[in-house]
Amino acid sequence: MDLSTNPSTLINKMIRLYCIEDRIFSGFLYTVDPKTGNYVLFSQMNGKYQPTIVRCEVVERVEILGDEIPSELIKIFDSFTSVDKCSLNTSEEMQTTSSAIKTLTSDELSCRREKIIKLFSLNHLNEVSVNDREEVVIHNVVFIKPPYNIDCCSGKNMIILDRVKNLIGKLEEDRNNPVE
């Protein structure tokens, strides 16, 4: 396979990486780090699936071996993703004396979404888009649902997911502790 092909199209496929110095790595591709391009493979060793990280610089050729991923491995991959729990932050709750949760207007959600997208751009997360479900999508591996807080983040690339959550957390801290 041509190395110019987007490696994220190979996610969840059984692949073989032919590397420099005649090294060969085979396994199911869990993810490709969007920043470094490194491959994260899972292969079975001694009856257990183990991860292997292969630096993109050493890969000379990629071969697709199969498309069918074992159910056991799907469970492992799914366990890495965050819980799909999305709630308003406590600072946005209880806007009245009743215990009702404030619902954000579409303008407030749009403003919040734009602030997050700008924050990501300033922090070199450039492949950011909004899908038809109004989710912010980063490198096609991390998704943030409205109302765009930490609890609304999910994804399969733990490196990017953690970075996104940290950035959103800093944005929340800045909002809760304004400079006087």
UniProtKB/TrEMBL annotation:
Limits of the AD domain: 81-176
GO cellular component: nucleus; SMN complex
GO biological process: spliceosomal complex assembly; spliceosomal snRNP assembly
Protein name, as recorded: AD domain-containing protein
Pfam families tied to this protein: Gemin6_C
Superkingdom, taxonomy of origin: Eukaryota
Record InterPro entries: AD (IPR047574), Gemin6 (IPR009422), Gemin6_C (IPR046856)
